Structures are given as structure tokens and as C-alpha cells.
DNA sequence: TAGATTGTTAATCGATTAACAATC
DNA sequence: TAGATTGTTAATCGATTAACAATC
């Protein structure tokens, strides 16, 4: 029983994908599924699926398989999607605006409670139900509203300062779209670097490698 | 000498990060660096850095280290950033528009040569130096211009059809922002799934796990 | 009960780290 | 030359896959 030991990032990164596939199965009226069949659909091995699920509990029934809807809700709970972590967005330029309006935060376990920018042209603009605030209001806002997570859609040059400041203000996690590599924010800050450029460059590599 | 054997994805995914750090070093006037010092800055081990570089060649000098600028250009070349792969964007909504205008494709080994949408409200709009075309023009455009890569910023429901069509039109790689999981496009299609929602959910997991 | 499929232990595979001879 | 650091082989670690007893 490997329950409760620290879960590896490899497993964690597969959870949202299971969540997605289970949602589709559920929507298609599939009520139960075996690890073998799920493996086939997801291009994984049945072994891996069973190992992954057993990190968190015994969700299946021997000789039968897994109940799709129940498993879906277990993974939802494991991912923490049932409690909304308050988050703020720093940088409401092109990318920031898109993220704010397109991400369906409340389906992903987050609630966007504040948007900040330092450009006077952008401050005051409405984005969904929020109004872009000045970065000068950040300290007071955080003290009052205690956001846990910050989304960074800012230029590389301003990132180190912002990260430093937000860490002091109690931010525990960063979703980082900036080109700055957050490695030394705070030893136990949780960082998810998105780095779309890196992703694009690996495609460049793999496409040329093909020839 | 492990040269020319198939390079693992773990190594490939580190290359853009090396590229970024070397750029910064170069900009800060650092001309040479040892694997030990680079490891310290990047939070890696010196061993790993030397192993990684030696997948592609012998770029260092024993007793001395690596020349920053030379190594930077080697990695640029390895990533294929010196030749621009022609790419098209499908879906010019919020996310598609942001990607088109913010990505600096030509610095990442790509050239955006066409943008397509099926919404009449969007078709005809200018984005940078391009004009959004109708998806009806896709076949003719691809036959004439031979794009190699497609960026998908479309809803999950339209994705399977588009992927199928583009594969037939000779697209070799997909940069996929849609929620659809491209697994069965073509056995040797190159796919980079971005899945921002998945990324956000892993943050949700890790933040609640902390408590 | 027999058949099926899980949960879990053991074996394998691959990636990372350590060690050290080669050499600048 | 002596000191430093690479390139590369060997050892370790972790993740994936295979096997199988438990059990529905």
C-alpha cells in the first residue's frame, strides 16, 4: 500500500488527463471501464493506470473494473477542484487578458479575485467581472484578501521583483507565463512554469530531426 | 560517444532552457562557464549538463569550460532555430490572436504564413501582417504553400476533424492548445500538447497538498 | 463456481548522478 | 608542469512494465 507517500510529479501530471478522459466517457454514457480498456484509449499501459490510481486509494472492484462517474469524482477531489484557491493575475496585456477570460478558473480549482497592471492605459479596464487595479494596490489587496496563487503574465525584466514582493505577501504558488525562470523565489514556493516559447522550440527540434 | 542515437525527450525539453540561460549569460558579458557553475545557476547537476551536451557533440574544453557564445549558437543550431519552418494557425479567437501576435515565431524556428477561422466575423481581419482566411481556403493554401506545422486554437469538438484534414494536407507537427488529446492523428505526427487547464490543475493539486 | 480484473510485489528499463581517466 | 574541468563509463535511483495472488 503506497498510499500517502509523496506522489511523484510524473503521476500528478497524468491526473488531469485521466480527469479529461473520464469526463468524456461519462458524457458518452459509459458507466464502467477496465484499466485495460482505458489504457487502450489513452495510449498507456493498464499497469501504469492501476499503479497511478493506487497511489491514492482503491477505487476499483476486482473482476469488474472502475465505475466511471465515481472515479471521475475521486480524481476531481484529489486534484482539489472542489475547493477554490483564490488567485490573482499580474499583467493584463494580451496574454493576461486571454488567460483571465478563457481559463474557466472555477472548473480548475481556482478563483480569480484580482487583476493588476502598472500600465495606466490598462488600469481601470473591466475584464469579466473584475476591474484591473494598479500594482500600487497590491499590498493592501493581498493583506485584505489573502490570495494563495499568482499568475504572471509580465515581461521577464519585471518578474524577479514581482516574485520577491508576492512571496513576502504570502503567495504560495506561481503560474508563470513570463520568460523568467522562477527557481529561487522561496525554497518551498510551488512553481508551474509554462514557457510557451520553450514548447515551440522543442517542436522546431523535433520537426527538423524528422528529416 | 552517445552521438546520433535517438535523443530522449527529457534532454530535448531541457535544451530551450539552456538556450535561455546562455543568452542571459552572453548578455551579461560572461564569455565562459564551467558545467559546475551553470549547474548552480540552473539548479541542475554538472553531470547532467555534461551528459546533455555530449548527446550532440564535444562543445567544451577540458580544464577550461564552455565558451558561452559558441555554446549558445550550437544549441540554436541543434534546436533548428536557423531554419524557419512554415506554420499555420487554425482558430483566431482570443487565444489564437494572442499566440499569433506574441510568440515571436521567427526567433523560435517558425514562420507563421497563414491564419484561418470559420467565423465570418473574424475572417478578413488583419493580424500583424496577415489577414484571417476562411477555413474553406485551407486546402488550396496548403497545396500552394506547404506549411509543415499547425497551431490549433480551436474548440475540442472541431479538433478531430481539423487534425484529420491537416494530416492529409501534409502537416507534420501540431502545437495543440485545444482540449482535444491528439493521440491518433497519424502514427508519426509530431504533437506538442499544451493543455493549459491541465497545468493549472496540477497547481491546484500541489497547493492543497501543501496543507 | 469460473472468469475477469483489480491491487501489489517483483523485474525491467531509462534517466540521473557519481567517479575518474583524458587532456587542455 | 600542476590544476582544472571536460567527456565518458559505471553506479544509483526512480519510473514503468510484467506477473500473479487476492477477490469480486
Structural topology:
Two copies of one chain form a homodimer.
Chain A: H1 9-27, E1 32-33, H2 35-42, H3 46-53, E2 60-61, E3 65-67, H4 68-78, E4 85-90, H5 94-102, E5 110-117, E6 126-127, E7 130-131, E8 133-134, H6 138-145, E9 149-152, H7 159-168, E10 173-176, E11 190-193, H8 196-209
Parallel strand pairs in A: 4-5, 4-9, 5-8, 9-10, 10-11
Antiparallel strand pairs in A: 1-3, 2-3, 6-7
Helix pairs in contact in A: 1-4, 2-3
Chain A binds a DNA duplex (24 and 24 nucleotides) through helix 3 and strand 2.
Could you characterize the architecture of this molecule?
- The first copy, chain A, has helices at 9-27, 35-42, 46-53, 68-78, 94-102, 138-145, 159-168, 196-209, and strands at 32-33, 60-61, 65-67, 85-90, 110-117, 126-127, 130-131, 133-134, 149-152, 173-176, 190-193.
- Chain A is of the alpha/beta class and 211 residues long.
- The first copy, chain A, is globular and about 60 Å long.
- Chains A and B meet through helix 1, helix 5 and helix 8 of A and helix 1, helix 5 and helix 8 of B.
- Chain A binds a DNA duplex (24 and 24 nucleotides) through residues 1-2, 8, 10-11, 34-36, 45-48, 50-51, 53-54, 58, 60-66.
Rg of chain A over CA atoms, rounded to whole Å, is: 20 Å
Judged by helices, strands and strand pairing, the structural class of chain A is: alpha/beta
Quaternary state reads homodimer
Distance between the termini of chain A: 47 Å
Which chain pair has the greatest contact? A-B, 60 and 60 residues
Count of helical segments of chain A?
8
